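Q: Okay, next protein. This is LLM class flavin-dependent oxidoreductase from Brachybacterium hainanense. I've checked the sequence twice, so it should be correct. Can you predict the 3D structure?
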Amino acid sequence: MTSTSTLSSPIPAPHPADAEPALPVLAVDLVTDPALAPSLAELGRGIDAAGIGAIVLSDGGLHPIHAASALAPATRRASVLARTDAVHVEPFHLATQLASLDHIAHGRSGWLVTAATDPAVPAAVGRPQLDAEQTAQEAADVLEASRLIWDSWTDDAVVRDIGSGVYVAAARLQYADFEGRTFSVRGPAITPRSPQGQVPVLVADADRAVVGEEVAAAADGRALDVPVAGLPPQRIVELVATALAEETAGATPGAEVGRIRLVRLVGLIPDADLAAVLAEVAQALRDQGLITAAPTEGASLREQLGLPRHDVVIDPARRSDRARIARGETSLFTDHVAPRQPAPATAPAAAPAPPAPEPHVEEIR
């Protein structure tokens, strides 16, 4: 889907209501043990052939985004989701990495947002350890900033006009201009908008407590965790069916917040039998009408999850050519991220922005 820029209304909500209900996608969780690296591509091809909807990469030594980027080219239908930390990484770079993963996967990628709780993690990046409330607040800010960065280019921003020497139309880019509680991000992104535009963001049951209710409510949905270590296929099917039935029984009709979009099978051993086990489980669950159909080649993760893809709406106040001139800047891609600061007791009032003059430059050459 190709969008064009619009110049008059605010950015749409990140996850508008579905046109119709969608069944959850079946996913298998893989822990990124470095020992798995040599067989990762072969393992991915087997899972892909088994008809599994998605593969979740959880941190086990290899960075989940790196592992997902290596796995994506080995698959054709299954999506790859990085279950990765939102707090102990620069927000601008995290958003860029996730958008780049979406380019690599041709729209078959997603993010299971989590937050590292090991004290060694903040120490490694020179930050003090955050308490539970601070961690949840920062995770929420990172999610909001990431979505603004992903929407900082329209789909048609890259014009590649050889005759005029214009590569990007600056009027089709906008600054993120995000001010969080401990950091700020100006943007815009340094990569064109990814195939899905907004990378789907989900929260797994195992991560809900650490990322907090604000993130859980803002996410595109929930990943229902089903521990299945050492179980035969039929028992896995029974557990998934029971878990979904229990959730359905307690759900509010028509509720969108916290909706189950993904069923994550946790604890399976990535051995030679994994693909056969997954194929049997997936077929049995589809026969019972409990999970969505097997993905087709070319389908995005948003399509699998039943999430619409929205167009970017350019905010005139943040449009890159106008904002850049108003600030007296000569380069569009400068000063992306202001360093994190301790959260102030009372947020200072923001200085009023000067009025933006009419733009003198419409393109980046």
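A: Here is a summary of the prediction. The mean pLDDT is 86. DSSP finds ten helices and 13 strands in the chain.
Q: Noted. On to the next one.
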